[in-house]
Design the sequence.
């Protein structure tokens, strides 16, 4: 009986072990299933992290990340952009009065209608998927612009639209390069980030133009007088190129400081501008401790009042309305008020600020600085000329510059995100006056020493005459 009982217990024990093994195996399968399911969801159902740390599924952001926007959405963006420009861009009326529009063959009404019609003509009949492969239609956006989705087509159409204004007030679509420069310092919406990711995916990131700053700047000597020539402030295609450009210019300045020269000439004739940071940082050894407060007078439209208020604390300014029943509130010079009214502007801002030259490097220049300019100097080159003249940091020699410069209220640009695509446009929102009451945008600035002769020849004569005293 004991043996039988033992056998029965053995069978029971084996059965229990079998049942226990089965349960453990089943539990293992369930756990593996759960793990696999979680991985599958995470891997194939992407989540995006919001700024507050919460997760949101791709469905919740599909509106901003989808490459396709319809014709109606594109038109809404286009009309929104133009409503902003009519309300806030300060140069349209002044450009017509000045003759700039006629000279540059700019007809605002025609340009505005041209690209709106283009959006309708090229996309409406393909609204189901207007950006399908080129074989769909010889008139498709894909075929005309070589872009594979509507956001890239939107970028191309808006860019061409704004380019027709010939860089008036730096009115432009924000390029992928500018976006990449601004990204670390600005808060862009998820929609805008998705838009520029879409643009980036359409570009061939494998091709990069070789950039050598020495192709655009050089250091030479005439009669033992150093001459820095900078033909462009455009710094390649990325931050590495920009930093290399700054280093190249700074290296020239360091050599000049070390040589303890009494004079240095900076030749920017023919320089069409680019990134002002190159001269602000690269030439800082020549300019530090020469800066002084600069006062500027500018005008802007009422639509920018909120934007003005957002940055008011960062500026030393006085604000005047162009129209007021109380004469005490108006700018004291009535001629300036008339100029601003005629240009369709609503507010005058007088700004006093120090020029944006970085802190001192190890060594700074103690001698005389001379700047050579001509009519081709615009934008950031114009800024350099204005800085030198306004602060006395250098003597400016040459002919009237080309304009499009500013030294005043910060920030310089107003940036606008379009509601459907997320694309950005930007423009100067303040129009600045020269001392004679003309707008710098169109007239440029008059050098300290204006001459029709070769500016370098005149400058060398002046240096030699001073040395002979």
Sequence:
């Amino acid at each position: 009986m004991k043996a039988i009982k033992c056998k029965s217990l053995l069978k029971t024990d084996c059965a229990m072990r079998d049942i226990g093994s089965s349960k453990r195996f089943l539990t293992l399968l369930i756990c593996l299933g759960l793990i696999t399911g979680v991985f599958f969801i995470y891997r194939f159902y992407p989540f995006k992290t919001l700024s507050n740390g919460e997760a949101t599924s791709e469905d919740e952001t599909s509106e901003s990340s989808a490459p396709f926007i319809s014709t109606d959405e594109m038109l809404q963006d286009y009309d929104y952009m133009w409503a902003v420009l009519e309300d806030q861009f300060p140069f349209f009326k002044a450009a017509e009065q000045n003759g700039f529009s006629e000279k540059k063959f700019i007809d605002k009404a025609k340009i505005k209608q041209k690209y709106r019609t283009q959006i309708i003509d090229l996309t409406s009949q393909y609204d189901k998927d207007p950006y399908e492969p080129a074989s769909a239609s010889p008139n498709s956006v894909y075929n005309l612009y070589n872009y594979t989705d509507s956001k890239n087509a939107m970028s191309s159409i808006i860019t061409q639209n704004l380019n027709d204004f010939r860089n008036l007030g730096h009115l432009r679509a924000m390029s992928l390069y500018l976006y990449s420069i601004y990204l670390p310092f600005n808060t862009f919406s998820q929609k805008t980030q998705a838009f520029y990711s879409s643009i980036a995916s359409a570009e061939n990131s494998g091709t990069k133009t070789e950039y050598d700053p020495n192709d655009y700047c050089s250091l030479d000597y005439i009669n033992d007088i150093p001459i820095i020539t900078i033909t462009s402030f455009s710094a390649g295609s990325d931050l590495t190129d920009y930093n290399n450009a700054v280093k190249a210019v700074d290296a020239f300045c360091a050599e000049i400081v070390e040589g303890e020269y009494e004079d240095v000439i900076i030749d920017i004739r023919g320089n069409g501008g680019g990134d002002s940071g190159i001269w602000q940082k690269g030439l800082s050894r020549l300019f530090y401790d020469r800066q002084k407060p600069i006062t500027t007078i500018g005008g802007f439209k009422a639509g920018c009042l909120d934007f003005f208020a957002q940055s008011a604390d960062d500026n030393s300014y006085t604000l005047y309305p162009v129209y007021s029943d109380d004469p005490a509130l108006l700018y004291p010079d009535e001629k300036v008020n008339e100029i601003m009214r005629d240009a369709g502007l609503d507010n005058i801002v007088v700004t006093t600020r120090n020029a944006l030259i970085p802190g001192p490097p190890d060594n700074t220049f103690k001698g005389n600085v001379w700047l050579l300019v001509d009519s081709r100097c615009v934008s950031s080159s114009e800024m350099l000329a204005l800085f030198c003249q306004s602060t006395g940091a250098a003597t400016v020699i040459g002919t009237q510059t080309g304009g499009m410069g500013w030294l005043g209220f910060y920030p310089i640009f107003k940036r606008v995100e379009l509601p459907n695509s997320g694309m950005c446009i930007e423009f100067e929102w303040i129009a600045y006056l020269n001392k004679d009451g003309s707008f710098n945008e169109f007239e440029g600035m008059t050098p300290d020493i204006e001459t029709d002769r070769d500016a370098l020849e005149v400058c060398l004569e002046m240096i030699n005459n001073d040395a002979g005293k």
Observations:
- Residues 1-20, 34-66, 125-148 have pLDDT under 50 and may be disordered.
- Residues 414 and 426 are 5 Å apart (CA to CA).
